[in-house]
Amino acid sequence: MRFVILFLLSSFWLGLSGQAEDPKYPTTLPYRAGDLKNGYQLLLLTDENYRTLRLTGPGMDTLLQQITTKQDRNELGFLVADVDSFFIMQYPYTNMKIYAKHTGQVIAQGKFIEKDIASDIVYFVDSKKPDFLALYDLKKKRIESYESPYDANSSFSMRIGNKQIGDKYLVVWYILPDNTLKKKYYARTN
After folding, report:
1. SS3 label, residue 32
2. pLDDT at 51 over 60
3. Could you read off the pLDDT of 133-183 as tens digits, one per residue?
4. CA 110 from chain center: how many Å?
5. What's residue 74's pLDDT?
6. What is the pLDDT of residue 22?
7. In a 3-state reduction of DSSP, which class is residue 188?
8. Taking the alpha carbons of 123, 124, 128, 129 in that order, is the dihedral positive or negative?
9. pLDDT at res. 155
10. What is the DSSP letter of 8?
11. CB-CB contact of 27 with 21 (8 Å)
12. How crowded is the C-beta side of 75, counted as CA atoms within 13 Å?
């Protein structure tokens, strides 16, 4: 009889230890989603109901985003850029947010267009000015806005082609609704 009880207990223990970890509910919580510059980290916390993305750093811990475990984990976003005092997250459906590291507050947000690695510029359509092309200069740490050649009802971000940027100018090639390619020059503010 002791042998049967010992056999059942050992079988139960072996069965538990051999189970694969459910990827929706990892047992090692929290885990780091990524290290950022200057001692900041993105942490992903998961429990049986929520996934939470937090920003931690020197003397701070801030909630950035929270979704249910039924939602796709990609909705927590992807790191696009990490600079000394801020970072940029891109979310599904081309949305993005620029966060200040020291507070975790959103500096700007909108529809992501692209990140120009060579020029350290992020192009986006600012949600506060949807009829403007915005760019965030990673070197100068500032936002610049340029009036769109389209009306506010058109999808400006989907019709931008090539861009050329210098210290004093921005050139944007764009496509009109009739598929005509046009070019627009903008003077950059210093």
Report:
1. strand
2. yes
3. 888 888 888 889 988 766 544 555 556 767 888 889 888 887 777 788 888
4. 11
5. 84
6. 42
7. coil
8. positive
9. 56
10. H
11. yes
12. 11
